[in-house]
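Something for you to look into today, if you have time. Could you write out one complete protein record for me, on any chain you like? The space below this message is yours for that.
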Amino acid sequence: MRKIDAAQSRWIAKLRNESGHHSKVLENLSDGFDYDKARDAAVQWFKAYESGVTDDAYTVEQACKDYVEERRTEKGEQCAHDADMRFRRTVYGTEFGKKPLAKLWMADVKRWRQGTLLTKSSQNRTMTALRAALNLAVQNRRVGADRAIEWKQVKQHSHAEGRRELFLDLDQRRRLIEAAHGAVRVLIAGIALTGARPGDLRMARRSHFDSRTGTNSFYAKNHQRTIPLPLAALPLFERLAKDKLPNAWLFTRDDGKPWAHSDWDELVRAAAVSAGLQSGVCLYTLRHSFITQALMDGMSTLDVARITGTSLAMIEKHYGHLVMTQARERLDRVKLL
């Protein structure tokens, strides 16, 4: 302990190893930080130092940015962009983001998650990205492994992935498209006609569309799927592909640049308001409406799963009630006796 002045004293931890003498200021002496607390903090620092961690000022925001760069290198721009946008909305520039990992506690993480004001399902996805970023910091020895328990103990919300209930019928889908303007109208129509994820269309290039066979290939999650396009979708794709080089983007913003994640959010919301639709409409509403309509009109779950790039298990989980209804209607038409 070192005295600062007549009224204050400061706890300091010191160690000596083969590289010399090292010291670290812990905290000022107080009722809340006595000898026992100082000893525990010193032991924690000794362990971290021995494991190679020497920077205790490394923050949550720095960890998130390093994670985004790691994703960009290992998984590609789309994966990195998704994580970056989540952190931009919830971490960067916040008090939570400025917090050193060495002083991050479970209560801090829980308060941050609650303060995002996201839905529980969105909180789960954002928490998954944050947990991955902090675990990477541990792997890179930017913080001691003992700190990981603070975010590992923050459990995901249970029963947060309920099925989407917001369905737009044919008239509502047409009204939404008519209410939109410019490039976002094209994007809305593309999803309404294919059931693709927004990211599928965002990454679609001219070379992915084959007008001869009427198909388009989508590349997502390191997986390719080639799907037949409905006849109603062919004029749109042919118009977008016209006079473009093979590597050119099919779907672009009004300025000709490729869409970035969530660029369309406000534009879609504005179109929904103009069309007199209920709140909560987003691009994924169009995907959900495509899947629902396809199942209601008798398409098999296998065909719908293949076209939309999801699994049979997810179709059963989120649309099983529709599948059961259609199966019962078909069964009632079977002459059993």
About this structure: The beta strands are 2-3, 9-17, 20-28, 209-210, 215-220, 223-228. The chain has a mean pLDDT of 86. The chain is about 50% helix and 10% strand. The chain has three domains: 2-50, 60-152, 170-332.
